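Please describe our next protein:
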Amino acid sequence: MAKIPQKRRCCRTVETHGVSFYPRYQSSVTFSGFLNALDGVASGEERIIFLTTNHLDQLDPALVRPGRVDLACLIDDASPSQAKHLFTQFYDSEEGVDVEGLGDRLEGMVGREAKEGRRVSMAALQGTFIRNGPEEAVRAAKELFVRR
């Protein structure tokens, strides 16, 4: 883990990809060392650290104990209004395109699919928006939904 500057305010994201502390993988970072880096004697102050996981229930209680993790937030799949907001913010400068109308279509699509038990992530939508123009993005969004 890179050394974090002691006299600067900083933000740190930690992503383990589910392999750092499993016995079948080689790692030079021990779980104890990782915890000490987070909040041990040598750890710095005035920092924000983001821990991400898809399986909160599988994390060691020592990692997510109060005082070490002060706030847990669920970043869930897109709601219809979130999908529309992302779309209209992404394409707001498009000339000659009814961005609001296309956003309404996407919002309706996300709502209908959710009623059928199919969801879409904000990341999947954003990736589609990056690769497509507004009309193409709404058409391509139909393929992004998965059953959860």
